[in-house]
Amino acid sequence: MVLAIVADLLQLVVFPLFVAGAMSPADDFLDVAIAGILSWLLGWHWEFLPSFLAKLVPGVDLVPCWTIAVANVYRKNRQLAVSMEGMSNDKHAQHT
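and the corresponding structure tokens:
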């Protein structure tokens, strides 16, 4: 989550001050690097694809897409873990 927030802050605050904003090669490099790192850390999730593509559209780069994508992946994984725990408890209760 911290990586996604830092990437979005760099793209929103720092890069526009020094380079040509969304059309910057540095911005594009950061997006490719973040997509790779997040996929490596969290595994591939479909939420990353719209985030990556949205960063290529001028104006949409003002939305913190990486942070939203990682928060959504976290939320889905948490829901899955809770439902798996519930299933495990149900099976344990049936066997006792």
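(Above: one complete record from the training split.) The radius of gyration is 18 Å.
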